[in-house]
Amino acid sequence: MYERQLKAFICAVQCGSFSKAAKKLYLSQQALSKTIDKLEEELDVPLFVRDYGGAHLTSDGADLLPWVQNVCNSERQLEMRLAEL
């Protein structure tokens, strides 16, 4: 689906800021921001409120977070299972 974008979303939530998430993912802050922008555009849902203090989830972003985590966990489990075969 949107594996890279979903992982960037989760990392930004965990880090509390785009700049910290970008460093963790070895991206520029601008690249991470564009990745999140593209995800928001494709989902047609604003996920973050961006301000000078960082980024925090919108109510829709908070609602979608557990779903996104489940998708990423399922993808990881699928990869592990495929490696076993």
Could you explain the architecture of this structure?
It is a single chain. It contains 4 helices and 2 strands. With 85 residues, it is mainly α. Strand 1 (48-51) and strand 2 (54-57) form a beta hairpin. The mean pLDDT is 93. Helix 1 packs across helix 2 and helix 1 (3-15) packs across helix 4. It has a two-stranded antiparallel ribbon with strand order 1-2.
Describe the structure using short key phrases:
single chain; two-stranded antiparallel sheet
Task: Write a brief caption for the model.
By secondary structure, the protein is mainly alpha-helical. Helix content is 72%, strand content 9%.
Q: What's the SSE blueprint?
A:
Elements: H1 3-15, H2 18-24, H3 29-43, E1 48-51, E2 54-57, H4 59-84
Antiparallel strand pairs: 1-2
Helix pairs in contact: 1-2, 1-3, 1-4, 2-3
The pLDDT mean sits at 93
Global geometry: globular
Question: What portion of residues is helical?
Answer: over 70%
Largest sheet: 2 strands, antiparallel
Number of helices: 4
Low-confidence stretches: none
Structural class: mainly alpha
Number of strands: 2
Q: Identify the strand order in the major beta sheet.
A: 1-2
State which percent range the strand residues make up.
5-15%
- Along the chain, the helix and strand elements come as HHHEEH
Q: CA-to-CA gap between the ends? A: 23 Å
Radius of gyration: 13 Å
